[in-house]
Amino acid sequence: MESETKLKDPLSLKITPWVSFIGFFVVWQLLIDTEIVPGILLASPVEVGKLFIDKLTNPDPDGAVLMTHTMISLLEAVLGYVLSLVIGIPLGLLMGWFVVAEGLARPPFEMIRPIPPVAWIPLAIFWFGIGLTGKVFIIWACGVVPCVINAYTGVRMTNPTLIQMARTYGASDWQIFRWICVPSALPMVFGGLQIALALAWTTLVAAELIAANEGLGYLITMGRRLLRPDMIVLGMVMVGLTGWVIGNIIDRIERRLTAGLERGGAAT
Amino acid sequence: MTHVTIKIECRNVAKIFKQRGGKVQIPVLDSISLSVVENEFLAIVGPGQCGKSTLLRIIGGLETPTTGNVLLDSKEVTGPGPDRAMVFQKYTLFPWKTVMGNVEMGLKLGGMAKKKRREIAGHYINLVGLQGFEKAFPHQLSGGMKQRVGIARAYANDPKVLLLDEPFGQLDAQTRYLMEQETARIWSAEKKTVVFVTNNIEEAVYLADRIVTLEGKLPGRMKSSYVVDLPRPREHIDKKFLKLRHIITQETELLL
Amino acid sequence: MNTTMEHAISVHAASRGNGPAAFVRRLLKNRYVLYVVSIVGLLAIWHFSAVSGTYSKYMPTPGMVLNELWRIAHENLAGQNLLGHLWSSLHRVLIGFAIGSVVGVPLGLFMALNRYVNNLVKPVFDLIKPMPPISWISLAILWFGIGEESKVFIIAIGAFVPALINSYNGIRLVDPALYDAIRMLGANRWQTMVEVTFPAGFPALFAGLQIALSVAWSCVLAAELVSARSGMGFLIILGMTMSNPSMILSGMVVIAITAYLITVVLSKVEKWVCPWKVELTQ
């Protein structure tokens, strides 16, 4: 209980974030206009804005319209991400409950686990080349790890009392797994989703920066090659924006699904 | 007759909690007036959520009353300070400090030299029965031991009054009995003015010189005052003990 | 809790009965036996599929990888042997991590302690945060060229974000009761900060540094993959361009081991520095 009346924020405090936000763009613009920072090193907000509008329809000079790049990046990321969920979550759940699953799957998993996601890139390119397959493989490899870990932990954290109770009813191993372990692991699984997503997006961008013919990472690299900082900044902004939007979407889905869970309770 | 010094005086203390920028008002205490005599052990008893912790915090200076005031040695209380020491229900020890570090903290804040404060802190660690545990960390101690550290920490700062906020609420029943005995022993060894808040009537009868009851609903109002005129050390099953306990219990039951 | 879980599982395990069939069944349900089976099986499958023709160009045998590991540990590739490249990467990580933390931690502290600083910095920070550190690489190269500075810059950004967030949260989430306790003991504002705010926030701050260092290791690799003349990232890209999968895999092994060691060492340091740390459940 809040003991003292919270003093209403003084006006100056409330204004500060806006001042900061607007000031950031103003200062940035001025740095370029006054040539304190040469135009070849950094593009001003206005230039980036102009390029954004332009690239909505203009495929030059990098070969594709902005939305095409974004969609390609998204496609690669989402495919890899979904694949890692589809494989990682069931695997993690099974590993948490069935000794046979854990015994067999754990050693290869523990070997993959410490590999930083970006380290997969050269191998993937070597095996699959620059196109879609390679990227999907990379995203999958790095997304699988948090999915498995979270699903596994979620099952290990199942309330043992529930399990013992089910045994007294004569439930089989599989039934306990299906009706008790899996539902109670769901919150942790969802936690893993967000982590895997952020990882997937970052790694994809890295992969595209290194070797790609299309996508936002490619846009950023092209910007450097053509000495067009406005393309670079546009690419960076789109990367950040897209990542943020998907993150929010997953957040909403998560909230809707886990809210239902909490209300209904796990299979008790 | 010995001259009686009034140590703490609450004068018409009232407290209203405001939430959401003043729109929601919750009256928690209403016209509390009471006095505590020097070296008296006063217990404030009431069921949960009746404002007794808030009253204690106001005496301690952690909260300010909406109306009324609290005097300590005839001077108004305006904020927390080393002249009032508090023992918290959740121990609130500093987890990164050892037992010694916790107990000497008040003295350290007051600028006392290391040797001297180690001595004083050591004395109180012994007093609460934790000799040998000076270098232990709170997470290594049991609940009862942690609370002893809390008591030693409060005592070591040489406060004018000791305020205990349901200090044994987190302990299991047996440890609770043990700690009641220990508290009585410690207090007898070094007398201080004590205000002790609890919801356990038996505990209050065991420890206090005087018991004040608060009504069982918000806002908390004073209901009755009982003098506990039993010789120490007290027996839980003594007839007079049980009678007093019964009277107070009946009264509080009527309120709920 | 885990042991109860184990018990709950094992009670029902098909471990009843005696005789050779039951023994084998029990054996196959033993976790450690399965680990061994798995590892051996994996190596065997790997070896045989690598040798059997169709994919042998793409997949070296375990033996070949070990050989390669030995080779690059001793020969010089682009001027350094394995250890040399490892040190190049680590060296960049340490500098970038130091810069990122030295800027991020105090800033996070100030943001938590002062509402003006918070309101001033947070909007800009929230704009920068969603952009992955590696996406800065083009700008960094444009600004600093392809030398050390561009890589250190990326690493610094990568370390900066978690360092700031965790020191910010560490201070903000300090148990308010501790403030009550220290004030009742007579502390003034400065003493409160020194005796409670900082020590109470320290475990979270340290956790932030752990994350920052892990992120830094990832960032250095990413930056080296894009453009470098030395380092572990460079090494595996070299393997790729030279079509030498053994080199790629050996490099990945060393990278993984380093990442693992970083985590383990920091955990030990944490136990030593914050022995009282309470495990915060997420």
Description of the structure:
- Chain A has 268 residues and is an all-alpha fold.
- Chain A contains 10 helices and no strands.
- In chain A, α3 runs antiparallel to α8.
- Chain A has a single domain (44-264), classed as MetI-like fold.
- With 256 residues, chain B is of the alpha/beta class.
- Helix content of chain B is 34%, strand content 26%.
- Chain B is built from 8 helices and 10 strands.
- Chain B has a 6-stranded mixed β-sheet with strand order 6-7-8-3-9-10, sandwiched between helices.
- In chain B, α7 crosses α8.
- Chain B is globular, with a radius of gyration of 18 Å.
- The model of chain B has no long low-confidence stretch (mean pLDDT 89).
- Chain C is mainly α and 282 residues long.
- Chain C has 2 domains: 2-59, no CATH class; 71-273, MetI-like fold, CATH 1.10.3720.
- Chain C has helices spanning 2-10, 20-28, 31-51, 62-74, 82-113, 115-128, 137-144, 148-172, 176-184, 189-226, 232-241, 245-273.
- In chain C, α11 (232-241) runs antiparallel to α12.
- Classes of the chains: A mainly alpha (268), B alpha/beta (256), C mainly alpha (282).
- Chains in contact: A-B, A-C, B-C.
- At the A-C interface, α1, α4, α5, α7 and α8 of A face α1, α3, α6, α7 and α10 of C.
Architecture of the largest domain in chain C in CATH? Orthogonal Bundle
The Cα radius of gyration of chain B reads 18 Å
What average pLDDT do the residues of chain B reach?
89
Given as residue ranges, the uncertain stretches of chain C (5+ residues, pLDDT < 50) are none
Q: Please indicate the percent range of residues of chain B in DSSP E strands (runs of 2 or more).
A: 25-35%
Overall pLDDT confidence of chain C: 86
Provide a short characterization of the protein structure:
Chain B is of the alpha/beta class and 256 residues long. In chain B, 34% of the residues lie in helices and 26% in strands.
